[in-house]
Structure formats: C-alpha cells, structure tokens
Amino acid sequence: MIKLYLLILLVLWSGMLQAQTKQRNASPKKVSNPSWVKNIPADDVVKWRHHIHQNPELSFEEENTGKYVEEVLKSFPNIEVVRPAKTSVVGILRGAKPGKTVAFRADMDALPMQEETGLPYSSKVENVMHSCGHDAHAAMLLGTAATLSKMQSQLKGTVYFIFQHAEETPPGGAVDIIKSGVLKDVDAFFGMHVLPDFPAGHVGILPDGAASTAQDVFHLTIIGKGSHGSMPHLGIDPIVAGAAIVSALQSVVSRNVTPGEMTVVTIGKFQSGDAFNVIADRAELAASIRTTSEPTRKQVEARIKEIIDNIIEAYGADYKLDYIPTYPAIQNDANLNAHARKSVVAILGKDQVFDAPMMTASEDFSYYREIAPVSFMTLGIGEGAANHNPKFAVDDSALPNGVKAQVQIILDYLNK
Known about the structure:
Elements: H1 2-25, H2 42-54, H3 63-74, E1 79-82, E2 89-94, E3 97-107, H4 134-149, E4 156-164, H5 173-180, E5 188-195, E6 203-205, E7 209-210, E8 214-223, E9 227-228, H6 238-256, E10 264-272, E11 278-279, E12 282-291, H7 294-315, E13 318-325, E14 331-332, H8 334-348, E15 353-355, E16 374-380, H9 399-415
Parallel strand pairs: 3-4, 3-5, 5-16, 6-15
Antiparallel strand pairs: 1-2, 2-4, 6-16, 7-14, 8-12, 8-13, 9-11, 10-12
Helix pairs in contact: 2-4, 4-9, 6-7, 8-9
Cofactor: Mn(2+)
GO molecular function: metal ion binding; N-acetyldiaminopimelate deacetylase activity
Keywords: Hydrolase, Manganese, Metal-binding, Signal
C-alpha cells in the first residue's frame, strides 16, 4: 500500500511539474488592440521625427521647431494651440464631458555636437544634433495628440500636450511654462524619455520617489599670484591649491553622505597656465553635483563651500565661486506610477513593461511637481550609443509603442 501511495504521489508530482513547465514556456498572452490603435499615424510619427531630427535647434532657440509643431497640431481636429513661451507649444484637447485634467510632456531642444550616425536623415545643421531623443519625444506626443483628437466625443476631461523648449539648459523651459499659468489646472503630469540598451518598444517604469537626480553646478576661479617657475616662493600657485581642492572633494561622498544614497561629485574642468615654466596667476574649475534628496543636496553644497574656503585660505590665495542649483530630482508619485504601469501592461502586455532603474541624469520635468503629482517613465530604443553621444540613434520601430502607452495612460486617467 505504501509503495502504491508513493507511486501515485510521484505521478501527480510529475504531472504538476509538466504543467508548470508548459505554463512557463507558454507564449506571452497577446494583447487585443482597442479600436483607437488604428488611428495612430505611425508613418507620420516617423516622418515628423525625421524632420525634427534634420532641423535641430539649441535650447531657447527652437523657433522653427515650435512653428513646425504648431502647424502639425493645428492640422488635427479639436486641438486648441497656445504658446506659453517664445519657443514652446501647448496643445489643449477638451473632452465632450467634464472631468480631470491630465498633461503629457515632450521636450524639443537639441545639443551642440556634430552628428556621426551617417543616417540618411542626419542633421543638416553643423554642430547641432538631436543626440538625446527629444525629436522622438516630440514626434510621439504629436502621434498621441493626433490619435486622441479623433476621440474628443468620448473624452471626459481635458488633455494638455506640452511641447517644451530648453530641457537641456538651466534654468530649463519648464520654469517658463509654469510661470505662464497655462498649466495651473492640471491634476497630473506624465513624461517619457527614450533610452538605449533596453529592448525597442519596451516601457520602463521608473521608481517611486526619486526617479532621477538633482543637478547642481559650480564654477570656481582660484586667484593666485603669478611667478617664474624657478621662483615658486614669490608666487601663489593656483594649480596646487586647485589640486588640493579636487582631492578633498572626493571625500564628500565617501565621508559625509549616508552610505547607499546615490550622490556624485564630478570635477569636469580644471584649466590653468600656458607655459611649462610659469606659475599661473589663476585656475578655473567646474563641477557637476548629483543628489537625490533635498537634505543631502544642502549638506553637499555646504560641505563643498567649506572645503573650498578653507583650502584657499590655507594656500593664501583668493577665489570666486558661482554655485548654481539647477534641476531638482524627479519625485515620482506612487499612485501615478501604479496607474501608468497598469495602463501600459493593458495595452502592450506584461512582457513589454519593466522596472527601470533610477536615472542618474537630471530633468527639468521635475519642476511640474510644483503644480501636481508626476510620473516619468522610459521607452527602450534598442542597443546603441548612449544619449548625448554623436552616434546616438533611435530605432523608429519603438515609437508606435510609445504612442500606445501615452494614449492608454491618458484615457485610463480621465476615465478612472
């Protein structure tokens, strides 16, 4: 009896293992597309991106880009277009029924670098390139606006499509748009950024809380006393003082910041002197500081200033310091994040949604939290060069999924 009982258990256990294996190996459940998906102008989204990519403009100079976006928006039904700042554009879609107000933001500015992709639609502007994907952001949001503009009779609430200028250059274009007051009634903000080295078309949900870093910058001029290289006792060497500062600043993260809290202090510039046998009279340093919480941000600023002041005094030099706080960290709202995840899973399937790691870069999208909660996410664009690289390129096949995700998030938010 015991042997028979064990044999039955073995057969049952084997059957359960086979069933679990089949379940694990089963193809992901296909998502049935809602009827509005057929309204996504996928070919136009690619065309819009290529046009913007070929005609890049730097921060605060996006006049032609803004005009182009405005013209495209005005070609859609039911979209009201406003210009809250000189080079930014906001499209407003008011649904047939009253309800909440939601905003989705894209940026439009390019970077000062020469493109090296060799693409047939490469930048026509020398030393200016869309190497961060803002062309893709703008094109996808145009696709989202085009799709939703045909659903006005079904919408409950209002949608703001924000085409923002100057994300790359502090103080950032978000500040101008917020000051204009056009967004004062928005209840929630969403944003999406393309990133390489994640599967094309897969959407990453960034963490609750700190989803990016705050960025601060300092420019330091050390004022010494020039002298002949053979007579150092007659001068005050700013290079030696600067070297001491660079070395001392390396202790800020390792000895002042709580272990495990992401903080970076990078000295990106140290320039001084023109001749091998001359002690220069000044040196220039510049740094980028990244933090994720306001208390640590203030702590690091205070410590950096203290180190600079004391070392300069010790070396008998003088200095001028310009410490510039720029963008705060994006603080993703947990409820909006959960909403975004649910919506994207519903339209793309669970297998195309992932937990994205916190971005160590900075984003002025963080300022919109002054008005309402925010949720920022990523869109994979396949393997390739990093953002801000002259070989950076976007896989166009990812763009339709970006539009699908944006439309579903907006529809679900207004209908919840």
